[in-house]
Automatic annotation (TrEMBL), chain A:
Record's protein name: Putative ABC transport system permease protein
Any single Pfam family the record assigns to this protein: MacB_PCD
Main location: membrane
Subcellular compartments: Cell membrane
Source organism phylogeny: Bacteria, Pseudomonadati, Pseudomonadota, Alphaproteobacteria, Kordiimonadales
Automatic annotation (TrEMBL), chain B:
Pfam families: ABC_tran
CDD domains for the chain: ABC_MJ0796_LolCDE_FtsE
Key word Membrane present: yes
Protein name as annotated: Putative ABC transport system ATP-binding protein
Domain ABC transporter: 2-226
Entry's Gene Ontology molecular function annotations: ATP binding; ATP hydrolysis activity; transmembrane transporter activity
Swiss-Prot/TrEMBL keywords: ATP-binding, Cell inner membrane, Cell membrane, Membrane, Nucleotide-binding, Transport
Keyword presence, Cell inner membrane: yes
Superkingdom of source: Bacteria
Sequence similarity: Belongs to the ABC transporter superfamily. Macrolide exporter (TC 3.A.1.122) family.
GO CC terms of this entry: membrane protein complex; plasma membrane
UniProt source species: Kordiimonas lacus
Length: 826, 227
């Protein structure tokens, strides 16, 4: 009995080659896409779960509430917060640690180089279960002249030598010290938000003169993690952050009387396990993922699988009508309904199983490329029981779904009717169901096309957005503010300016798209009600506007020949003194300050602190448009372009001609002037484009998976079209006898398949528009919403073309065949 | 009406060559009622298909209304066919998914006739063949005789000058068969040329002339004595 089923099943597979191939390939592609996405999703969900106390670890995030601006969130906090938590939350928190990265200059084995090193506290050892392979990490992190490194760091610098006991000389800030390698730990896996290759104990004494690193309450540089004591609820702790802020933040002398620290700063705790998927703000050790991406792709995986299942089901029901005769005969021979159902389910599951095997082959073939694209090594583990169970469960599910309807419908046929009438046993119900499923498939496909187009469009829009200044032919040399180059940066600039092809150059504190948050509060002299107003701040030199080709709405740029231009230095000023100076601002600033039109703003004065109890009255000499220097993903803030002797870390070069030639010239000069400082550069246009890298990746992935979804849907449509044509041969023959031309017939068949696609459009458009509009909301600068209309039309058109292409060939073949053949053997 | 001169049809499949018609000469005048008889496989349907322009001859001439259509392509034949020729088949060949009315209307669909006129003409022929009360029914709800009447209505709704019927009574019992024959006779009296293949000598008697085919040849042509 069973053997008979198997042999009938296999014979059926082979007999209906096209049907089997379409079904197996469609399912395999759908499963493969689903598995690939699931691998990515599972990897995203696995972040940091491997730490022993992962569920007790939290990070302290900081939100600055700046009046008149969006709150600014960073995942870092201030150096003094560690001690404050230890004292204030003594009953709740077991340990606190800080991570703060530096790029010290390292000397080892007569070589000089720079590596990223994290300064941290000894508690790290007790909080993060690092996998130590050599040395004593606890002792090492309790000693200010011991370096702890990971295996790849050790391998890179010490090769096969035993790293323990090797000595490197590190220079940072004012410190130069010999460090002994005290311990080596296994590289952190890729599925961690933590990313450090070397650790050094923070010795605050080394930073005495650089208090912003660990001493200031208004300077955030540290990722601060804390570990809850057993049995403590995080909610109880969270409820006390406000009181913590006002009790522990020792900043009374820095804020206006009558205000509280909690008016400006809000702390919050973020579980370590949430960091990867719930991005909170700037300052992560490495770029994180996003739960939205995970959800989008989970949904796509589900949808592709759904499309594949629908194919399976549709083709199975379509084909089943051709087997009415077999069923009838089996029934006449005494087969019970249950047996028939078993038979059809079995066949369906067998087909699904073959699809699974092929799908796994596809996954294995695609994995290297996929891993490469995602930048992480993903593997597909069959051996692990859950995966296997899930896959087999999936197959049973798909197989049952595909086999269920035909099994029930076919086994319910009346044999006498089928045998006597000898005609297609298709019921109008099954045709309707099939049409509904085709509509669903195309709704999904069209939705995916629209989404891909919108994401892609937003990416292109973002990358080509006019930031308000020149972005092409602009080279930024970084690190010019690091000791070794800092002292001679002006000389370096002059050397660069002498190079051929250099039009101009400017030293600035930040660089385009670095997202840097630097703010100063100002007052309006003679208008105390205005209070203190926080303005964004970019440190620039007098060549800034010329170099970046920023036009002026009113007034003028800084002029070196006027000795009074810029923000004066507090050096030599007496306490309480008010100095005089000038400043250039953007248009938003004058709106924020209520200074009227740009022309009216010229000559108006703002007062800004420039040192301990020394202030400067800056009169506005120029107003520039709202340029997007900070980040294209943020709303432009009111911003001052302050020229002063404050620290500057970047040199922007406006050049023409060969970039590569210029770059090597600049690098040569750099190597000569500051051999101990790493040479690092970027191009402005690339830096701006990189801001949309995540969208680029999203668009690529969406595009890829949409194509797969459509391919699977088309496979199904092709199969259906051939079944339909077969079913309608008689009808087509009659129509031809009655005078229908080939064109009439092709039109008839194509229209039949256009209807579901058109209906699908009507469903998909509003859904896609709604979804994409809420996605676009996250961008302050985004493509015009009206663009969604042509994009929808475009997607619908594409879907229709694809559908036509799929069924057209078949329709033409059918339409050309001689009608007498169809009518002859009835 | 039409004239076949030395007309032959050869079917070539992979190895076998079947001569279905061999130098057939037939002339059919306008308004005639012709029956074609002969044993199974002798080429009756082939002859009818060629007359109906559903198939093309391998050699010879086919003059239809003064026009030699032997070498015409499919589109041209289709055009002449839909203007002039109606078909009735042994197995009715109605479309299961369409109602009686829609099945009949189908014959006008490819003629560029406005919908209102189509409806009128469909109603008229339905009356004529006596199935108006079944207009909204599906073919599967009708008896064989009724289905064939729908097929007859469909064949004449376009005012075709000639009807080709391939064993129209083959699937019907004798009472229903006679009904259909009477209908054809009436159409013939109204001026329609009818060419019919049949196995039944009784039904062949309705025709004024019988062509006997054997193995692709015309053996005899009997003219029935005028009554
Ligand atoms: N499409 C075809 N291909 C090959 N042989 C055919 C085809 N149509 C008919 N024949 C052959 O031509 C001969 C005449 O067939 P047909 O005209 O259908 O006979 P009848 O209608 O008199 O029974 C038969 O031998 C038949 O097998
Ligand atoms: Mg025949």
């Amino acid at each position: 009995m069973f053997q008979n089923y198997i042999s009938v099943a296999l014979r059926n597979l082979i007999k209906h080659k096209l049907y089997s191939a379409i079904n197996i390939v469609g399912l395999a592609v759908g499963l493969a896409a689903c598995v690939l996405i699931t691998l990515f999703v599972r990897d995203e969900m696995s972040f940091d779960t491997f730490w022993k106390d992962a569920d007790k670890l939290y990070r302290m995030n900081t939100t600055f509430n700046v009046p008149g601006r969006e709150p600014f969130v960073t995942v870092m906090a201030m150096g003094p917060a560690k001690g404050a938590i230890e004292r204030y939350f003594a009953g709740e928190v077991e340990a606190v640690t800080r991570f703060n990265n530096e790029w010290p200059v390292i000397e080892y084995d007569n070589k000089v180089f720079s590596e990223e090193v994290y300064f941290t506290d000894p508690e790290t050892v007790d909080m993060f279960s690092l996998d130590v392979v050599a040395g004593d990490i606890k002792q090492s992190l309790n000693d200010n002249s011991t370096l702890v490194v990971n295996e790849s760091f050790a391998k890179k610098h010490f090769g096969d030598k035993d790293p323990i006991g090797e000595v490197m000389t590190l220079t940072y800030y004012a410190t130069t010290r010999d460090y002994r390698i005290g311990a080596v730990y296994k590289d952190l896996p890729h599925n961690s938000v933590m990313d450090f290759r070397a650790l050094i104990m923070i010795d605050e004494a080394d930073f005495e003169n650089f208090p912003w690193e660990y001493g200031h309450w208004f300077s955030v540089n540290n990722n601060i993690f804390f570990k809850l004591k057993d049995g403590v609820s995080i909610d109880a702790l969270n409820a006390r952050w406000k009181d913590f802020t006002d009790t522990m933040m020792d900043v009374r002398d820095q804020i206006e009387p009558g205000t509280n620290p909690s008016d400006f700063v809000t702390f919050s705790s973020q579980p370590l396990l949430d960091i990867q998927l719930y991005p909170a703000g700037d300052g992560e050790m490495k770029p994180t993922g996003d739960i939205k991406t995970v959800m989008i792709f989970s949904a796509i995986a589900g949808l592709i699988l759904l499309i594949a299942c629908i194919n399976f089901m549709n083709l199975a029901t379509a084909k089943s009508t051709q087997r009415a005769r077999e069923v009838a005969i089996r029934k006449v021979m005494g087969a019970r309904r249950g047996q028939l159902i078993t038979q059809f389910l079995g066949e369906s599951i067998l087909l699904a199983l073959i699809g699974l095997v092929l799908g796994i082959v596809l996954v294995e073939m695609a994995l290297p490329v996929y891993s490469d694209f995602l930048g992480r090594e993903l593997t597909f583990e069959y051996s692990d029981g859950t995966t296997l169970a899930i896959l087999l469960g999936l197959i049973a599910f798909v197989g049952t779904l595909g086999g269920f309807y035909p099994a029930i419908a076919l086994s319910g046929f009346q044999p006498s009717r089928v045998l006597k009438a000898n005609k297609s046993a298709e019921t109008s119900g099954s045709i309707m169901l099939r049409n509904a499923l085709v509509v669903l498939q195309f709704t999904i496909s069209i939705g995916l096309i629209v989404s891909t187009a919108v994401v892609y469009g937003q990416m292109v829009y973002g990358q080509n957005m006019d930031p308000g200044y020149q972005k092409d032919n602009m080279l930024v040399i970084r690190n010019v503010g690091r000791s070794g180059m800092l002292e001679q940066q002006e000389a370096f600039k002059q050397e660069v300016l002498r190079m051929q092809g250099v039009n101009n150059a400017s030293l600035t504190s930040g660089r385009p798209a670095d997202g840097n948050e630097s703010n100063s509060s100002v007052e309006i002299p003679g208008n105390p009600e205005a209070g203190s107003i926080l303005l964004g701040r970019q440190g620039v030199d007098h060549d800034f506007f010329e170099t970046y080709q920023i036009p002026f709405v009113a007034g003028r740029a800084y002029d070196l020949s006027r000795g009074t231009d810029g923000t004066p230095s507090s050096e030599g000023a007496k306490e309480g003194e008010v100095l005089q100076g000038t400043v250039v601002v953007n248009e938003r600033t004058i709106r924020r300050l209520g200074f009227g039109t740009p022309e009216e703003a010229i000559g108006k004065v703002v007062r800004m602190g420039v040192g301990d109890d020394v202030q400067a009255d800056l009169s506005i000499i120029g107003v520039v448009p709202d340029i997007n220097f900070q980040s294209l993903r943020q709303i432009i803030r009111p911003e001052m372009y302050v020229m002063s002797d404050s620290w500057k870390g970047n040199l922007t070069i406006n050049f023409n001609g060969d970039a590569q030639a210029l770059l090597s010239q600049v690098e040569n000069v750099w190597k000569r002037m500051a051999p101990t400082v790493p040479f690092s550069y970027e191009y402005v246009d690339q830096a701006l484009a990189e801001e949309f890298e995540a969208e680029q990746a999203l668009a690529t992935m969406l595009g890829g998976f949409s194509m797969l979804a459509i391919a699977v849907a088309c496979l199904g449509l092709y199969g259906l079209a051939s079944f339909t044509a077969e079913r309608r041969t008689k009808e087509i023959g009659i129509r031809k006898v009655l005078g229908a031309s080939v064109i009439d017939i092709v039109r008839l068949l194509i229209w039949q398949f256009s209807k579901p696609v058109l209906v699908a459009n009507l469903i998909a458009w509003p859904l896609a528009v709604w979804g994409m509009m809420s996605w676009l909301e996250t961008f302050p600068y985004r493509i015009d919403t009206w663009l969604l209309i042509p994009l929808c039309l475009f997607a619908g058109f594409i879907a229709l073309m694809i559908a036509w292409g799929t069924v057209g060939g078949n329709a033409a073949k059918v339409a050309r065949s001689n009608p007498i053949k169809a009518l002859r053997y009835e | 009406m039409l004239k076949l001169h030395n007309l032959s049809k050869v079917y070539r499949t992979d190895e076998v060559e079947t001569v279905a018609l061999n130098s057939v000469n037939v002339e059919i005048a306008s308004g005639e009622f012709v029956a074609i008889m002969g044993p199974s496989g002798c080429g009756k349907s082939t002859l009818l298909n060629i007359i109906g322009m559903l198939d093309s001859p391998s050699s010879g001439d086919y003059i239809f209304m003064e026009e030699n259509v032997a070498g015409y392509n499919e589109a041209k034949l289709s055009n002449i066919r839909k203007q002039n020729i109606g078909f009735i088949f042994q197995s009715f060949n109605l479309i299961d998914e369409l109602t009686v009315e829609e099945n009949i209307e189908l014959a006008l669909l490819y003629h560029n006739i406005p919908a209102s006129e189509r409806r009128e003409r469909v109603a008229h022929v339905m009356d004529k063949v006596g199935i108006a009360h079944r207009a909204k029914h599906m073919p599967s709800q009708l008896s064989g005789g009724q289905q064939q009447r729908v097929a007859v209505a469909r064949a004449v709704v376009g005012d075709q000058a000639m009807i080709l019927a391939d064993e129209p009574t083959g699937n019907l019992d004798s009472a229903h068969g006679q009904e259909v024959m009477e209908m054809l006779q009436q159409l013939n009296e109204e001026g329609t040329t009818i060419v019919m293949v049949t196995h039944s000598p009784a039904h062949a008697d309705y025709a004024r002339r019988t062509i006997n085919l054997f193995d692709g040849h015309v053996v005899t042509e009997n003219l029935r004595a005028a009554e």
